[in-house]
Amino acid sequence: MRDTDVKTTHDGAIEESIELPHAVRRAFADWYRSEYHQVVALVYVLSGSRTAAEELAQDAFVEAHRRWATISAYDDPGAWVRKVAVNKARSWGRRRSAEARAYAKHVGRQRQLPAELPDSAADFWAAVRSLPDRQAQIVALHYLDDRPVDEIAAVLEIAPGTVKTQLHRARAALATRFDTEDAS
Amino acid sequence: MKLEELARQSSDAVRVSVAHLDLPPIGDGRPSRSWTPVLVGAGLTAAVVAGLAFVVSNRFSGEATPADQVPDVVEVPRLGLPDDLGWTVVAAGSHDELFSPGGVEQPTFAYFGDAGDDPFGERDLLVASYRGDDEIAGSEGDAVAVRGTTGTITSGVDQGLPGDATALEWREEYDGGRAEVIFVSRSFGADELVAIADAASFDPVTARLTPAADLGLTELLVSSGTPFDGARGSGEGYMVSYQRGDGADFVTVNASRGDLGREVLGMRWWTSAIEEVSVGGQPGVLLDLSEAFGGDTGGLTGHSVIWTVRPGVVGTLSSYGRDDSLDIVELAASTVELDEETWDRYVAASRDQSAGVEEFDDVFGRSEGTVGDSEYVWVLGLQGENLCFNVQSGSGGYGTCQERISIEAPAGSARTIDSSFGDEFAHVLIAADPVVGDVVEVEGRYTIERVDADGIAWYVAIGDRDIRPTFDVIVDGAVVTTLEAAVEATAEGAMPTTDAVRELGLDSMEPLFASFDDPELIWWFGEHEGRACVVTDGAAAEATCVAPDDVMVFPTVSLPDGARTIVVLRDAPTCATARVAVEDLQAISEVATDEHVYSFWMVPRKPAGMFVELTGDGARQTFPLPQPGDTASWPGDTCG
């Protein structure tokens, strides 16, 4: 079986198929291996769902694979897949479809789940999710993904100044919530 | 502990929690998504197509009832587990409620083979088709030309199907719609599948493909979903889902109108790992789901037991999780018929789950009801320090958070703080001074409930989305003010100061509205120094102003995933008592200032031939939208 990269238009129509050379396939595999767990972690904390994390992250990588010929030329393909993953996590959280559908999904296919978090970490990330969406994303990218302000801005496609402002507000809210000192 | 330290420790914990996960296969000829789980996940699993399902060959050795012997009238019980087994209810409802909310289109699975003792032994073909708005994620594989388009050939395991099967997948476009179609077979190879597909006839009414007659295949069974789907059989059925322990183990219990023999026939295409069992003395079968899905179970266990509950009723209990010691035949035998009180309790628990009650740190109020055919549940309360409101129906949910608010003097003050007009119903959230005695919709068309919490009287109004409500606020029996559904404008800060903003002199503009709903396009609207302006952020950061008018169409914004056009309507004519509808537009919100009521809309592309539609009092008027960058006024004779 040969590998293909199917380019699609925004409405999903197939435009053309391009064979991916072996070296490109290898590059994707290496990149995927290096990024996968971190993206699952990101989706996990932003969606708050153990059951959705792996699937949403996988969806993001599937999109990356389809567009790999383009994305691989980016300075930071990781920023692209994070943007997709963050949006999927946000969408999942805000527009929860009927809960029963998710459970029906489990019947159809089985998959691994992230382990449950210790209480302190679970509380922390629950508090992060209670922040406005953009602040939660910035906090996750900053602490969990170890991304500096300019890279967060690139992922979220917002101004670095906005990242700084929102991160400051988020830290202040979290510090109040946990009665801790905001060292920022 | 400092916040930094807490954040770092919490981040480390997350990294540890995902470290054990295996990478799902992507590329290298392996799948991205499985067709079947996608269908299941889309909630498209309910009914055998009534009247179409029949069994030519029924070779199950148990006491199966031929399909045509299923009684016409069957009372399907609600089955569940005894409360003392330690399982927690997470979802409960009828199959229609859970899997066909809003009349969602069902997928069709048609099984073809040869009439005889071994119907799939020599030739087999599964034809699955789904006609709906959801796009089923494609799989990676070999691109092939089929039926005038490009399809994909994959192996069965790539699709979450039996590993020795070959699959052909494509999108069938036809006059009036499109359908996602997959052909899967163990006996036919890729070239043969393409040839069979090219020669097949397509019925646009049912969106089903039938192989050419000269192939000699017999249609053995037509059903919706797979034999392992939680809700399969007929639409007449009920499901309860449970979880246990840390949530890694799930069990679903279903009862539905159906026939065991028919179910077994479908199963035989999927797997040979079917074990006959007795469930409390009734005939049944036990199925290993890992076998059915080509052994790709991700290290977890999954089994289904299907049994005859009574003539015309089959029960299905499916387990999924890490507990390999679970005896699901015994669990199935322990199921009981749930009485009305227990069922109502389960449904309430299910709705709490779907409405996200667990997300709230302090629940001010929760209620449920119906609008037309739509059931809903809403929750109001605090998540952290944010005031949040969730409303959930069978087909989706709406959730929003904002900073906690206060009600200022004078006594009796009230204001609308949130509203939405969704696909099924509308909601309006009003915050009022506790001295307010009542808030009523002037024509009594909304259900309104009051919750007193956090020093505020909250009024939640739910009603028909096509009715534009107006609310009287009553203190001591007298109407003190009237509220619209539109949210009272407040200054929306945090607008970026980009070069375009500076060039247009908008640095000091106080936005009336900010939209964060579209992650690709965050934008602010305001009127500043006699201009109506939109500022966008992100990849398409810019600022634009137009002369204020009734209908303002701002220049189309181009984004990597498509275009967006922001439309702002000002002061819809008073005769339009019903909602303002704009074809293909996504309603964003309404905001009221002292002078105007604005409604904000988004066109997910560049508008062409779009129009505004006003309805009310049985009248309907349409007005073409101006081109992007242009504005228009309401015609003078709008209210005739």
Explain the overall architecture.
The complex is a heterodimer of chains A (184) and B (640). By secondary structure, chain A is mainly alpha-helical. In chain A, 68% of the residues lie in helices and 6% in strands. Chain A has helices at 22-47, 50-66, 68-71, 77-94, 99-108, 119-130, 133-144, 149-156, 160-178, and strands at residues 4-8, 14-19. In chain A, strands 1-2 form a two-stranded antiparallel ribbon. In chain A, strand 1 and strand 2 form a beta hairpin. Chain A is globular. Chain B is globular, with a radius of gyration of 28 Å. The termini of chain B are far apart. Chains A and B meet through helix 1, helix 2, helix 4, helix 5 and helix 6 of A and helix 1, helix 2, strand 2, strand 6 and strand 16 of B.
Structural class label of chain B: mainly beta
From the spread of the alpha carbons, the general shape of chain B counts as: globular
Q: Quaternary status of these chains?
A: heterodimer
| H/E topology pattern of chain A | EEHHHHHHHHH
Q: Whole-number average pLDDT of chain B?
A: 76
Percent helix of chain B, as a range, is: 10-25%
- The residue-averaged pLDDT of chain A reads 71
- What is the 3D form of chain A? globular
**Uncertain stretches of 5 or more adjacent residues of chain A:** 1-20, 92-111
Q: Indicate the percent of residues in helices of chain A.
A: 55-70%
Strand order of the largest sheet of chain A: 1-2
Largest interface: A-B, 98 and 111 residues
Q: Strand content of the residues of chain A, in percent?
A: 5-15%
Task: Work out the radius of gyration of chain A.
Answer: 18 Å
Question: End-to-end distance of chain A, in Å?
Answer: 53 Å
Major beta-sheet overview of chain B? 7 strands, antiparallel
Helix tally of chain A equals 9
